[in-house]
């Protein structure tokens, strides 16, 4: 089994970290807004689905 050199590992991590491309401020803002919009749409969809199922079950059970 090969021994790992911690110094070499740290150098490789540093080199890899330099290759990371961070999103711009505009990309981050747009993506965040899209996440909030999609979360709101999903919550509305599931609210409506819940209401339809509740109405159907109430209709079946006669409550």
Task: Report on the architecture of this protein.
- The chain is mainly α.
- The protein has a domain of 42 residues.
- The chain is 79% helix and 0% strand.
- The chain is elongated.
- It starts with 5 loop residues before the first helix and ends with a helix.
- The mean pLDDT is 93.
Secondary structure layout plus pairing:
Elements lengths: L5 H13 L6 H37 L2
On the 0-100 scale, what is the average pLDDT?
93
SSE string: HH
| Low-confidence regions | none
Q: Into which percentage range does the β-strand content fall?
A: under 5%
Distinct helical segment count: 2
| Total beta strands | 0
Give the helix/strand class: mainly alpha
* Largest sheet report: none
Feature tags:
79% helix; mainly alpha; elongated; single chain; 63 residues
Characterize this entry briefly:
The chain has 63 residues and is mainly alpha-helical. The chain has helices at residues 6-18, 25-61. The N and C termini lie far apart (70 Å).
